[in-house]
Structures are given as structure tokens and as C-alpha cells.
Fold each of these.
Amino acid sequence: MISIRNFGKTYGDFVAVENLDLDIAAGEMFGFIGPNGAGKSTTIRFLATLLRATHGEATVNGHSVTREPLKVRQSVGYMPDTFGVYDGMKVWEFLDFFAVAYQIPKAQRKGVIGDVLELLDLTHKRDDYVNGLSRGMKQRLCLAKTLVHDPPVLILDEPASGLDPRARLEVKALLKELRRMGKTILISSHILTELADCCTSIGIIERGQLLLHGPIDKVYRQIQRHHHIEVRFSGDQEAGVSLIRSDPHVRSVQVNSRNCVVEMGGEDADVQRLMRQLATSDVGLLSFADKEPTLEDVFMMVTKGLVT
Ligand SMILES: Nc1ncnc2c1ncn2[C@@H]1O[C@H](COP(=O)(O)OP(=O)(O)OP(=O)(O)O)[C@@H](O)[C@H]1O
């Protein structure tokens, strides 16, 4: 549904995105993850036909981003990372503005606007001024706007940024609903946990390079060979930590106030050996838990070059 080949964008000497190749199949919810300035918006704006590439090509819903931008725009609902609106515009007028822009016939516009307001649970805000809406409502309205022309593809640039935890959950539930409706969704975020349980595939970008991408279960499998162990001590944490650090399979130890998190390679037997060593030495081991990797762990390991 989305295919990017050799995309690159430079600003003067600065390389914002370098030789990016990516395929996203129909029906996927693809999480585009990276820190600030990684190149997410640059890639997204290229897909949304709003940015000229330095090199490379992409197709969305079978249409070329560079040669058929109007067809791409009909296929895409794009939500930018910043939200702008004219003063004195009501919620329904905002949606009507986009419905007109997408050439939805007048006779259908009222019905379409009613439908998207209902889907986004905004019907009761129909006649409110957009500027008076809370941030969460504005984000939802912006999502509503991406749906007026019923596009098969949604490209959403940090749709949950700046929202409180409850509003974030609401956005997530909406995205799941949209996926059930058959939309292909690309969503960017630097909040990794936000995407963990709703994406079917992910890509990790840093400094303009796509470091890793693929189905989420495959990415998790790739890092299964790395153990993330949370260790707590009731006694001498320092002695415990230096014992851990002396293990040849240990790659890093992050010491926190109440625990430490150990990243280690090796086999299960190596982990068991370290656990036995800690339990039988005099460091006051309280707990030792081999955790399932979180998306946060995946990101840290990929950006540190531990997983390729
Ligand atoms: N018009 C521009 N001129 C010069 N540099 C730019 C321009 N637009 C973006 N950049 C730079 O390109 C890099 C990638 O920017 P981009 O907005 O794609 O990052 P991002 O991953 O979306 O980050 P964020 O999460 O902060 O939105 C950044 O270093 C940014 O400063």
C-alpha cells in the first residue's frame, strides 16, 4: 500500500533522511519510531506530497508521490504534527472546508460530516468554535478531518503528542477502530510505549537512517537473544552491581535508585549462572527477573547497534 524507494532529503549539507526503503502492506498499522529530529516528519511529508525529495520515489495506493500527487492526496488522510486553524471557525465549518477541498458533492457533505463527528465522538461539539476546544478535542477534530474523503491510507504525524494519558488512550482506541475499518495506517511517535500494543509493524529511524523495520513480532524475536533483567538488592547494591559487571555476557548495567537493569547476551544457562552467583554471594539479592523486552528496550538496543 505504501512503498518507498531510496528516499533521501538534504538541506544544504545536512542529510535529514538517507536512502530510505520501506514497504507497508494494506491493512497494517505501522509505527514509525524515532527521537526528535530523526527524520520522521520529513519522510511523512514526502509521502503526503508536501515535500520534494532530493532523490528517491514512493507510491501510495499504487500512485506515484512525485508524478501523481493529486491521486495520492485522494488516497491519504494526513494529520500534521502541528495544528492550524482560522479564527472564528466552527467545528462543522472546519470539516466542511476540507470536504469542499476534497470535492465532496454538496448534497453529501452534511451526511459525511455527521458521520465523522459521530465516529470521533464530537457530535456535541458540532457548533463550537475550534479555537475554544481543548487540545485533546482539537487532535480528535484533526483526525476527523483526515477521514472526510474516506481515504484508504492514514498518515498521522504524532497524533497523540501533548495529550494526557486518558486522551492518549482514546486516540489509541480510535486508531484500532480505524484499522478494523480496513485503513492502512502509518503513525509516528517518539513515545514508544504508545505504539507497542496497537502496531502490526514498526520502523526505527535515527539521524535519518532507518535502522530496523518489520512485523512487530519479528522485531521482538530478533532481540529475544538479548536478556533484560531487573535485579533488586536489599543489601549492598554496589557490590552486587560490580559482581554483575564482571560477568562476560553482561553488556550494560543501568543503576537506578531502587533496582538495576542488566542487558546481557548468552544462553539461558548463562543467565541462570549469574542468578545463582548473586543468590549465593553476600550481596542481599531480593529479586531477579528476566523481563519481556518493551518497545523502549528494542529502540535502545537498535540505536546502540546491538540488533541489526
Ligand atoms: N526546512 C528545513 N531546513 C533545514 N533543516 C530541516 C528542515 N526541516 C527539517 N530539518 C531538519 O531535518 C531533521 C529531521 O527533521 P524531522 O522534522 O523530519 O524530524 P522528526 O523525526 O519528525 O522530529 P520530531 O519528532 O521533532 O518532529 C532535523 O534535524 C531538522 O532540524
Note: The domain at 2-215 is CATH 3.40.50.300 (Rossmann fold).
Amino acid sequence: MHSEGRDSDSDPRRVLVLNPVSGSQDHVDDIVELAADYGLTVRQTEEAGDAMRFARDAAPEANLIAAAGGDGTVNEVVNGIAAADELETTTLAVVPAGTGNNFATNIGITDLEHSFEVLETGRRRRIDLGVANDRAFVNSCVGGVTAEASSETTPDGKRALGVLAYVKNTVATVADFDSLSLRVETAEGPNGEAAQSWTGDAMFVLIGNCRRFTGTRTAQAHVEDELFEVTIVEDASPGRLVGDAALEGLFDRESAHIIRRRTPSLTVESLEDSIEYSLDGEMLETETLRLKVNSQPLEVAVGESYQENPDADEGWPLEPTQ
Ligand SMILES: Nc1ncnc2c1ncn2[C@@H]1O[C@H](COP(=O)(O)OP(=O)(O)OP(=O)(O)O)[C@@H](O)[C@H]1O
């Protein structure tokens, strides 16, 4: 029995952190069985926060930690590895058992069995890790999404739209949608990107790290370039944004009301009240958010279809910054 993770035959070098309540909640038996086949020690969470603690405690001895759950579980496990300061010697694997599984899709993981093959024999890549104040994120950080709308976002919405489902739900559920009065300051980039400052009223600010971080085809970030892709959606009538097509249209190259930047670090400061941010779907409320790409990358076991760079034939949505 591996589920306690303290048995004499358990291997502390290969640990799987299992969230039993993510996704459709019917994955526990299959994952425990696969973990035993692959010689992984299972630590099953009992409440929010456990995944972070289990990963932090396991990281000094482990060379592989698998996160079995959704994006929130991945986020906690990554925060645990980072808190233990073990990014250099610990590989993250992802076993997709969530609702949206946006990150798993981004790294080329197709299903449960495949995820175990990948953790055993898949390529290892070092990807950018975002840090927002003192918390790590892998996919995205979105300001302007409310916690209330986030908790009510449906599984179908998450699967179809990724993080944009939260944006859509916020627009749809918050009757008196207030714009965010913001100052956004980006730092200089390595390819001549200038430091820039933007002040104004925004509906959302999206900071993307991973390819297809929003789930849409047109909003993509390069995950090994040490840069974030920042999208500021300027204030516009919320009614115009409700449909899926309108939301995706927001990220088209020609879209009005969109400001884009690429930068290794930035500060987002509210000029009024504190703002709610979603970090990979986990909420954080603050007035000032300082974001940077972590100096130490995150090593991840990736599937065959993993691509660090957005598809060439789909075009790159960003215009170079002056
Ligand atoms: N045993 C547990 N009981 C209650 N909550 C838990 C437990 N273990 C983890 N959690 C919390 O469950 C939340 C949701 O998990 P997760 O994001 O992995 O799944 P999901 O929402 O179904 O999938 P996705 O984010 O991919 O759409 C996370 O905030 C996590 O902290």
C-alpha cells in the first residue's frame, strides 16, 4: 500500500502528490494503481494547501515529483518545490486529473497512461517559472477575475476556454463590473524591448507564461524565452465581450482596446482598491503585484507534442515593442 507514503518500501526519490477531489473525482484508484506500477510513493491530499506542503517536504530527497490533479494542484506542487529551493534537482511531472488540465495540455500530456509514460521516459525541458509577489505560477496570472466568478466557472467552460472562461464568467456574473484603475510598468527585455509604463482603466490584465495560456489559438506565450506576454484589455463595454468569439477576438492582432508587451518583469499597481488575481486558477488579492520570471527554471517531463514556441504557421500575435 503506497497511499500513506511512509511505508518501508516507499521510494522518497519518486513522489506523486494526489488530489482526490479535482476534476470528476473518479481518478484515485487508477492513479494509485499506475503509481504502484511505476514505483511512485503516493501522498494523498486532504485539504487545500496539502499539495504544497507535501511537495516542499518531499523535494529535498525527491528527484521526481508528480502532481496528479488539475492546474491548481500543479500550482501548489510547483510552489512547494520552489519553497524548498529544490528547483535545480527536482523534475515536475503532471498527471492530468483536473477539469481544465490547461498546463498538462500545454506540455503535451494526453491522458493518464500517457502521463506515466512521459514521467518515465519523456524529454526533460527547463521552462520559465513565473513569480507573483512571493507565489509561483506556471501558466498565467490574470487580474480582474473575481473569486466568486472563478468558483462558479463550469467544467465545460474551463475545458473549452481555459483561463478565458474565468474572464467570461466575471463579465457575465458581475452586474456592476468595475474597471481596474491601473499602472503597469514593464522592465527592459533582452531583445531590445523598452521599459514602458501604462496608466489607465482596464477590464483585465493577463500575464501569460505558457504557450496557449488562455486556451485560445491566438494568445500564446513562449515558455522558454524568459519573458512574459502581457495583455491589457482596456475598458470597453462588458456586453461586447460575453460571447466566446468576442473573447477570442480580443486577442487578435487588430483588436482595439488591447495593449501588449513582452517583458521579463513588471509591476501592476492598483490606483484604487486591491485587485483579485488568479494565478493558474488560484486566487490572490493585493494592491501591488510584482512579477518576474524566476532566475531558476522549472524542469518538466514533457510529451512528444510539446513545443516551447507557438506554431509558426499560426503567426505570432505580438507586434514588436518600440
Ligand atoms: N483533499 C482536498 N480537499 C479539498 N480541496 C483540495 C484537496 N486537495 C487539493 N485541494 C484544492 O482543490 C482545488 C482544485 O484543484 P485543481 O485545480 O487541481 O482541480 P480542478 O479545479 O478540478 O482542475 P483545473 O484547475 O485543471 O480546472 C485546489 O485549490 C486545491 O488546493
Note: Residues 135-295+307-314 form a domain with the Tumour Suppressor Smad4 fold (CATH 2.60.200.40).
